[in-house]
Q: What sequence folds into this?
């Protein structure tokens, strides 16, 4: 039962991260989208009994998310586009709007 629950969590996490990767790709954040796609593959790898493999996977996923957060933080906002007055959230909104703009063209 425990292994089945872990597999379901892996599928759900991979699906959500995959959607996030597509959004970032559509917003021209190519580096972040590639890293997120690799994270999906790493998450979907089968579990091994060796502890160092599990630790290496956790470290890789953590470093990948740090890279994605850094990539978001380097996004330049056009002047006067602040919505929430919180720069990081405004950057995420700007990226998402870029994705919507590319999808609807």
A:
């Amino acid at each position: 039962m425990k292994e089945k629950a872990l597999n379901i969590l892996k599928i759900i996490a991979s699906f959500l991260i995959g959607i996030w990767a597509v959004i970032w790709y559509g917003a021209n954040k190519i580096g972040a989208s590639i890293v997120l796609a690799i994270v999906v593959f790493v998450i979907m790898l089968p579990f091994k009994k060796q502890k160092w493999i599990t630790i290496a996977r956790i470290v890789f996923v953590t470093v990948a998310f740090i890279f994605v957060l850094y990539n978001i933080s380097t996004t330049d906002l056009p002047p006067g586009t602040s919505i929430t007055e919180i720069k990081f959230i405004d950057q995420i909104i700007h990226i998402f709007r870029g994705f919507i703009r590319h999808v609807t063209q």
Q: What stands out?
A: The mean pLDDT is 89. The chain has four helices and no strands. Helices lie at 2-26, 30-44, 51-73, 87-104. Residues 32 and 69 are 9 Å apart (CA to CA).
